[in-house]
Amino acid sequence: MKLLAAVSALAFAAIAASAVAQDFPTKPITIYVPFAPGGGTDLSVRMLEESVSKNLGQKVLIVNKTGTATIYQVVTGAPDGYSLVVGSTGNLAAVPHNPGAPYKRDDYVPVIQLTAVPALLIAPATSPFNSLADVVEAARKNPGGLKVGISPLGSISHLAAIQLEKAFKIKFGYIPHKSNGDVVTAALGGHIDLGSVDIGAGAPRMATKSVKGLALYRDTRMPEFPELKTVKEQGADISFGFYNVILAPKGTPDKIITIIHNAFKKSLEDPAVVARSKTLNLPIAYLGPNESRQAIDRSYETFGKLLSELGLKK
Description:
By secondary structure, the chain is an alpha/beta fold. The chain has two domains: about 1-115 and about 240-310, 3-Layer(aba) Sandwich (D-Maltodextrin-Binding Protein, domain 2), CATH 3.40.190; about 120-235, Periplasmic binding protein-like II (D-Maltodextrin-Binding Protein, domain 2). It has helices at about 1-25, 40-45, 50-55, 70-75, 90-95, 130-140, 155-170, 180-190, 200-205, 255-270, 270-280, 290-310; strands at about 30-35, 60-65, 85-90, 110-125, 145-150, 175, 195-200, 210-215, 240-250, 285. The protein starts with a helix and ends with a helix. Mean pLDDT is about 90; it is low at about 1-10 and about 15-20.
């Protein structure tokens, strides 16, 4: 009798989950962004808002609520698909290394990767540097003497520059800033020799030739900047930057994950969205749930090694 009851309960749960998925969504879906408005992660979701709402047949509401606590609150919430959060490289690959982190890698389900934004090395427009080779030569002559602007220690921009140091056996002197935007401003004023930022922050100023783009951390060049060489082309096989992934709470039914995934994937293929991504310099980089998990795991291992070497793992 107990076995029969258990089987019946499982069957009922499966039927209930199927019914929920078939009805999903019946109300607006909220996507939380753990960053302030206007950044690359925020814009990666906002450029899809209208298209995804149309595909789901329900309004998608985007709410900015800064801090990693936002990710914890969403991924430990109701696994019904109505509250999602967009995670980025730092809070998915770096934060979980902190012993006091509020969430771990297995607390959430990756639904879909939206964009992957490469890091970028820039220099003031008046700089004598015109290539990565110029930078390496100068750094070898004056170890630690080149002032490199970065966002906070342990950030994507910092770790990107660290990888150049490792690859070319050179040493920089770091000037931390609050954001990549502040680094670009410092480059415009000639207050730093180099800036380690991302393509989204640097592209508008490169377009007006206010700063020089020296090296892009990407496997291939970007069509929007055909003359901008990659780091790989200039001697080091490094691709680095930040990705943006939609996350759902662990335990969300597979059928609901599929519905959300399909709606976003269709939007990533929408010509209007593709055009918008190019305008914003946010390269679309679709990955499905399994591939997104693999990418997060790979970057988690990479960040773990780098943070340990820097003594920043805690």
